[in-house]
Amino acid sequence: MARPSPLCHFVLPTNTSGNYKAECKHCGTFISGSGKTKSNFTTHLKRQHLKIYEESQKTAKNDDQVTLLPFIGGKMYSTTDPCETQANDVLISLVAEGRLSFSIVETSAFKRFTQVLDSQFVVPSRNHLSYTLLESTDLAITAKVKDQLHLAKGVALTLDLWSNRQMRGYLGITCHFSNDNWAMQYIMLCCKRFWGRHTAENIAHCHDEVTSAFNISDKVTTVATDNAFNVVKAFLLPGFHDTDDEEEILRDDDELHEDDGILFLNEV
Questions:
Q1: How far is CA 150 from the centre of its chain?
Q2: Which run of H or of E encompasses 223?
Q3: Measured distance CA(133)–CA(129) in Å, rounded
Q4: Which H or E run includes 135?
Q5: Is 99 helix (H, G, I), strand (E, B) or coil?
Q6: Beta strands in 27-179 (DSSP E)
Q7: Quick check: 204 and 186 in contact, CB under 8 A?
């Protein structure tokens, strides 16, 4: 039985290949970890949030108990069977593109639906779907994106920072470049929670974190963003310069509106 990852209880940085710190979703404490070990996170959960930890273990155990009664007497796909792999890939796409809850695989209606389509396919547990299949798909897609960006001579970014009705901050960064055939390519690098104050320093830090994770820090030529003061200031920090004079950006210009203004900034 696959154990649930303790990382689901923490807010992780974009790059987790080396040493990093993650914020606990339950108490806000930052815990140190690395790509090789997760023991610190488990220890924190056991010491500070024992009931939550035990409940997640109990839920994972129940999720892994797949009922095979409807399939008794029938042959099931092996985990390495191409049909099993293809079905799991399509299931991941269904959940991601439809923004569905992982709990859909626990419903009897969904299981009956898949049995009608292919009685040899066993619906993965919620735990296996979220901690194994989704993570492996994410790694595969990220590797593919990095390969594409590695071939790009230069890239342009669009950056947007906003808050929802609950005043939770979110950051979105998209990447634009042309391939060898001069066809324009578009990739969303991140759309994630933005923690902390919306200061220029924090915005610049998140920008650097994302570009570093995708190995494009030295390839960014232009950043398009709105003209909110804190966002503009982030790219007036050392390492950036604007196409116009900085004083023109920072002064109160009637021709530049905060709601619909777009600025194009060039990195040094």
A1: 20
A2: strand 220-226
A3: 5
A4: helix 134-151
A5: coil
A6: 30-33, 155-163, 169-178
A7: no
The whole-angstrom separation of Cα 199 and Cα 59 is 39
Give the strand pairing for 220-226 and 184-193: unpaired
DSSP reduced 3-state for 181: coil
- Is the whole-model pTM more than 0.90? no
Asked whether residue 159 falls in the same domain as residue 229, the answer is: yes
CA dist list (Å): 118 to 81, 93, 122: 14, 18, 9
Burial class of residue 33 (count of CB atoms within 10 Å of its CB; 0-12, 13-18, 19+)? buried
Q: Cβ(224)–Cβ(159) under 8 Å? A: yes
- pLDDT for position 260: 47
CA angle (254, 257, 262) in 5-degree steps: 125
Q: Which residues contact 95 (CB under 8 A, 6 or more apart)?
A: 102, 104, 129, 134
**155, 190, 157: which is closest to 171 by C-alpha?**
190
Averaged over successive runs of 10 residues, the pLDDT of the chain (268 residues) comes to 71 80 87 82 89 76 48 68 90 92 92 90 90 90 94 94 90 94 93 90 93 94 86 73 47 41 55
The verdict on 117 and 172 lying in the same domain is no
Cβ(118)–Cβ(152) below 8 Å = no
User: Do both 52 and 130 map to the same domain?
Assistant: no
- Half-sphere exposure (CA, 13 Å, Cβ side) for 240? 24
Q: Which two tokens stand for residue 241?
A: 């310069």
On whether both 124 and 169 belong to a single domain, the answer is no
